[in-house]
Design brief:
The complex is a heterodimer of chains A (about 325) and B (about 260). With about 325 residues, chain A is α/β, with parallel strands linked by helices. In chain A, about 25% of the residues lie in helices and about 25% in strands. Chain A folds into two domains: about 5-175, HUPs (Rossmann fold, 3-Layer(aba) Sandwich), CATH 3.40.50.620; about 200-325, TPP-binding domain (Rossmann fold), CATH 3.40.50.1220. The longest helix of chain A has 21 residues, at about 305-325. The radius of gyration of chain A is 22 Å and the shape is elongated. Chain B is of the alpha/beta class and about 260 residues long. Chain B has six helices and 13 strands. In chain B, β8 (about 160-165) and β9 form a beta hairpin. The chains are: A alpha/beta (about 325), B alpha/beta (about 260). The interface between A and B is large, with 101 and 86 residues. β12 of chain A pairs antiparallel with β9 of chain B, so a sheet runs across the interface.
């Protein structure tokens, strides 16, 4: 079979994103199944030292230029379009992250290859690459193949194992000499995370509230439970967007990735953007009214009920327990 | 400022989504539509910008159930003009949607000037073939930034300074000349609430322009082999009983794992 696979490496401040390794791992699998080469495109400023991390690829295509510090998706898509033609690339994998958003559609526009978003699984069956994408916040999955096995895929972070993309091998590196076009979008500066009152990434116990908490006043109940458990309250995006909790408490794609011993979710449906930030917690217990809420897919224990019925009972239970403990 | 906000209706995922008989599309009969969340924020950001810098806001959307109410609500929030594209758009994917929006922007005496800012939601839950904003920017040849959470103008008022979210609370500031296209994830403030009474009174005094645009030829490039519902509850063990019983079971689990002391 002709063609080759290209993964678009994502990195930020000299740190390679986990999704990059996910793409390397799954990219390696597809390339081996189809017996075609796997390339990694590494664009940036002063990034040549990162090439050694791409051992899973047959070759890493490096472009290290001053103008490529935080390049706009236009610039990246133009470079990739040249590569697609020069290297006979059939499948391009890009990260489905905030950092890489826009690259896929823009490469699709330039190359006329179709673009597939939200990909969670890839299999090769009888020489055909079959993709599964999630739709509607993870409520529906969709099986799709590209016409002629050629297209661009955005990989949903957390869909593939990171370890499989790591390799001790020293990859062949090819230094590209493409000219980078001028861009109208200029990067000005990083804005550091607002120092939060509490660092939720360091908590053992998190009580997390979602849209189901209904209003700001109800958060007090979750606070009470969190305090009884020696933890703190965090939230999914809608709660922070409403201004009910500060951004430092947001778990998920744009917010924090947390790994507490206990993650107790209340009224969170489990949109993939949220799950991305909490799926590696030690024990996940979720309360939601909707029996089909995707949060139950990543939880160890689930309670299908109104959180306003469960929460007071739970507070009472933990309180009683603490009192009994004091008596003994 | 001359702002355009393109609004998109998506299925409300609070309702159960039913897969149609063909196994490849959703059953639209049972679907309830709502405004895509980030689009509501794009509108809010436009209203904030109008309050700050003046100007006007045009909102436009593809025809869909409940869209009139969404457009009237936008007018009640501060938009000056509302338009909808009539037709059946159920299977039309973002690159084709972007084409429709670009027809609108290049017709009817509309001019893209250094005062023009085009705002869309950063992403929608049904954007299978990508986001609308980057496609629209490419068709129009305009600069684009996605996942935007704040916008202001520089002193010349011809450049936008925008904040883009990365991850872990880290953000970046970008500058781009207008006209420009932004994919907004969230506005600086929560979307404002307008009382129904205000929407009703707008319905009496304002109207929605209807526009006819032929759907682009390639509405969808990919063909879906099948849609299916993921196996939910595959991992979670469900705890059942009265609230008190459930609470007792949860407490037991916490004791077992030494999360509360016995």
């Amino acid at each position: 079979m002709s063609g080759s696979i290209l993964i678009v490496a994502e990195h930020l401040r000299m740190e390679i994103a986990d999704t990059t390794y996910e793409m390397l791992g799954i990219g390696r699998k597809i390339a081996d199944a189809l017996k075609i080469p796997l390339y990694a495109a590494l664009f940036g400023k002063d990034i040549s030292s990162l090439t050694s991390h791409f051992g899973a690829a047959d070759s890493v295509l490096v472009l290290d230029q001053l103008q490529l510090e935080m390049p706009s998706p236009d610039v990246v898509a133009n470079l990739l379009n040249t590569l697609v033609q020069q290297k006979d690339i059939s499948i391009v994998l890009v990260a489905g992250t905030n950092v890489s958003i826009g690259i896929g559609p823009k490469l699709s526009f330039r190359s006329h290859l179709p673009f597939l978003n939200f990909c969670r699984n890839i299999q090769v069956v009888d020489g055909k690459v079959a993709f599964t994408s999630q739709l509607f916040g993870g409520k529906i999955l969709s099986d799709i193949c590209f016409p002629g096995n050629r297209g661009i895929v955005s990989i949903y972070p957390g869909s593939f194992p990171v370890d499989q993309g790591k390799s001790e091998k020293i990859p062949a590196a090819e230094v590209l000499d493409f000219a980078t076009e001028e861009t109208k979008v200029s990067f000005k500066q990083f804005i550091e995370p607002v120092a939060g009152d509490i660092d939720i990434t360091k908590q053992d116990v998190l009580v997390s509230v979602g849209r189901g908490i209904e209003n700001a006043d109800n958060i007090a109940m979750a606070e009470e439970l969190a305090q009884l458990l020696g933890g703190t309250v965090c939230a999914s995006r809608p709660v922070v967007d409403q201004g009910w909790l500060p951004m430092s408490r947001q778990v998920g794609k744009s917010g924090m990735t947390v790994k507490p011993r206990l993650y107790l979710s209340l009224g969170i449906s489990g949109a993939p953007e949220h799950v991305e930030g909490m799926q590696r917690a030690g024990l996940i217990i979720s309360v939601n009214k909707d029996p089909n809420a995707p949060i139950f897919d990543v939880s160890h224990y689930g309670v299908c009920a109104d959180l306003f019925d469960i929460l007071p009972a739970l507070i009472e239970q933990i309180k009683t327990h603490a009192e009994e403990k004091q008596l003994t | 400022m001359d702002m355009f906000v393109f609004l998109k209706m998506v299925p409300d995922v609070v309702e159960e989504l039913v897969i149609g008989k063909d196994g490849k599309s959703l059953d639209t009969e049972s679907m309830r539509m709502k405004l895509n969340d980030p689009d509501e924020h794009a509108l809010e950001e436009a209203v904030i910008l109008k309050e700050k810098y003046g100007g006007k806001i045009t909102v436009a959307a593809l025809e869909a159930p409940e869209v009139d109410e969404v457009l009237y609500t936008a007018l009640a929030k501060g938009a000056d003009r509302a338009a909808k594209f009539v037709g059946d758009w159920t299977r039309v994917q973002p690159h084709a949607v972007a084409k429709v929006f670009s027809f609108f922007l290049s017709s009817g005496g509309q001019q893209l000037t250094p005062e023009t800012l085009i705002l869309l939601g950063a992403q929608a839950i049904d954007d299978l073939e990508g986001e609308v904003a980057p496609y629209l920017a490419d068709i129009l040849g305009l600069p684009y930034v996605g996942v935007v959470t704040a916008v202001r103008l520089d002193e010349s008022k011809e450049k936008a300074l925008v904040i883009k979210e990365f991850a872990g609370g880290l953000r970046g500031e970008f500058e781009l000349p207008m006209p420009a296209v932004l994919g907004v994830l969230s506005a600086e403030k929560p979307p404002r609430y307008v009382p129904i009474a205000k929407v009703r009174s707008v319905m009496k005094s304002a109207w929605i322009e209807t526009l006819e645009v032929a759907p682009p030829e390639a509405a969808m490039r990919l063909s879906i082999d099948r849609l299916f519902v993921p196996q939910v509850g595959g991992r979670a063990e469900m705890l059942e009983g009265s609230p008190e019983e459930v609470a007792a079971k949860v407490a037991e689990l916490l004791i077992e794992r030494a999360l509360i002391r016995k």
